[in-house]
Fold this protein.
Amino acid sequence: MIGHIILALLLLLAAPARAGAVERVEQSTQGDCSPTVADVRGNVKVVCNDIDARALRRLNDQLDETVLERDQKVREAEEWARRYHALEDQLAELKAQLAGLGLGDTSELVGEAEAALRSGKLEAAGALLDELIARQEARRERRKAELEREDLQLARSYASRADVSALKFDYPKAWAYYQKALELRPDDTDILRIVGGFAHDWGRFAEAGQIYEHALAISEKKLPPEYSSVIDWLNNLAGLYQDTGRFAEAEPLYKRALTFAEKTTPPDGSLITRTLNDLAFLYHRNGRFAEAEPLYKRAIAATEKTLGPEHPDLTIRLSNLAGLYANTGHPAEAEPLYRRAIAIAEKALGPEHPDLVEALNNLAVLYQKTGFPAEAEPLFKRALAITEKVLGPEHHDIVLPLNNLTVLYRETGRPTEAEPLYRRSLAITEKTLSPEHPELVSDLNNLAELYWATGRPAEAEPLLKRSLAITEKVLGPDHPHLAIQLNALALIYRETGRPAEAEPFYKRVLTITEETLPANAPSRQAALENYATLLDELGRGDEATQLRARPEAAAIAPR
């Protein structure tokens, strides 16, 4: 082929040119395009197979504007032709697809772009495709918005279905539906609030913590930040930590929530009063009464100013302050606060409203602890009757009045009346929460203690083991709350002639108390003496003597 091209050029050079005539010499290449020249020194024009003449003119016009050599122009034309044919195929396929979807308006745009391409009107083709893209993007955004609305509606349907299962106490099925809602709307704070709250209430604390943390991060990233949401999520996460004994982690979250609330909301607003009350309760639970009292009082004052002196929100705040006074040996100050809380609830909600139950229980406990069981019993019974009437005989909220009444029966020497109530409380908690929920611990311990007190250690032992396993799972193997259960199991082993089985439990109690309590703490001294006494019983007096020689040892009775 190259030889033919050279021979043609030589013949052209040898032949005389005719005046006024243009000699044309055509040359071919191995591709779809080939050059056509006016003379060997003239401009190169390129022709390509299966391309409309109008498009070719556009190609050649563009090539003429370049400074490329002839062979470079041909190569550029080859690439241009490849793209042209590929674009033709793409447009034809796109037009057919759009027509098949019933999108006639966009299909027609593609047809117009095809015509513009064949005519060499590339600007027009580009403008038509820009219009096509704009329409498709607009349609896509509409579909995206519609899909988001559908996802939200479906997520809420799943959440509603979960609520129905929860009303039937079928919490595993409810959790499965809640998870489907969360999969559809993982960043929707309304769904996160619903699912996180359920996980928290049901004892799925790890999942609840993840949800709360995710929701908090979403609220913090919004610009400007949604401080009310941030405060809510900080309080929720702090509440979760408080419920799982992680008090050191809860406190800074409450303080941060209070700082935000004080900066962004009215000084007597609901967010501030809630946070004040929650932080005060944290201090209260940890024996920091001097720090809790002013916060409780501030929360009460803010609520009275905002909502009035008889608003039902005052019931819990008054009860909390009364509880603090009761815990610090000031029952005379506690009683009028409890009575005021009951009066507010009765007036605002009616004599059988479930919100009365806690206030009735609190006053009854005060009477019970101050030596007035006869005054306490009718209050406990009234609280139980209201709960049963409003919520049904198997609702979880029945557990508290049941347990309070059983304790009163125990303390007044009526174990046969207490036992069926303990059993009922345990059954309700297992059914309404889960077999490993932390709230089961108190039910299991109470029933085990009753069995022990009535001379039935064989029935107490499995309950204590189960209680210990739940506590270890929730709080970890070294938490100070474990000491009570470990000590109780060790005592059962000792009293039933199994001292060797008791040793690892006493030893573990001693390790926990040494790591978590000061040297002069009575519980730590008792743990040391209990272990030393056991060693004496095992014939290992030398080890017992070494234990008692420690500086922190104290001569107190084993327990």
